[in-house]
Description:
- This protein has 13 helices and 14 strands.
- By secondary structure, it is an alpha/beta fold.
- Strand 13 (247-254), helix 11 (259-270) and strand 14 (275-280) form a beta-alpha-beta unit.
Amino acid sequence: xxxxxxxxxxxxxxxxxxxxxxxxxxxxxxxxxxxxxxxxxxxxxxxxxxxxxxxxxxxxxxxxxxxxxxxxxxxxxxxxxxxxxxxxxxxxxxxxxxxxxxxxxxxxxxxxxxxxxxxxxxxxxxxxxxxxxxxxxxxxxxxxxxxxxxxxxxxxxxxxxxxxxxxxxxxxxxxxxxxxxxxxxxxxxxxxxxxxxxxxxxxxxxxxxxxxxxxxxxxxxxxxxxxxxxxxxxxxxxxxxxxxxxxxxxxxxxxxxxxxxxxxxxxxxxxxxxxxxxxxxxxxxxxxxxxxxxxxxxxxxxxxxxxxxxxxxxx
Length: 315
């Protein structure tokens, strides 16, 4: 299976990009939950120390402070691991940020299955389910460094709360430098006629590798990348589903309420279509090396190809 060109880790691109954006916009401030060396907010701290606030492991207080800062016209970027910002501080997000539609950007670092063997308690792959169920919340999951840069600029321009999903490992590059992220829009990555695959975040790179391998077997995959899981691009989802009449959703996330759930909801109302939800099942994860974890939980490029192949065979 041919590998895509390897790019930077999204967490590094995040640190670089917010530092550059802050050069242009003095409203941007960063609040960090003692994860600066891991999420690369350390780059922002070095460049803009007067706008960097080290909050320690007090995530609820950090979100409360961010909400307050937003009322003063600032644009707070809150950064910590996904498990801490989504799960530990959920009530603060709900009450202080989502309900009043505060202009706060929530960066969920180390999201998904691959958290660098930090321990199973640090794994967070139900974050999309939780955050997309929250009223007023926008949910974004970029695939590569090109999209991450463009998407960060877009969410800074957007007035309202955003959850931005960042994975830990280096990630393959699938977009050219002239690619422009548009909030709320899905992107066709590969045209095909046999089966429509929707994916999000870094799983799109694995789905693309799987699609190219399946093409050699005569299975033509129509691949659609969904970087904005909420609001979902319903028109694009319906059109892509109708194109082939068979849908597979693929994500580095639980199949309970994630992208698959969002697509299923849209299709059930607008265009009922046979579909398979591919991703992590209703489980907790474990700590381990990236490759073996992807294989064990069935979302490596090879396992993704297996799932698409099986769906096509059983249509």
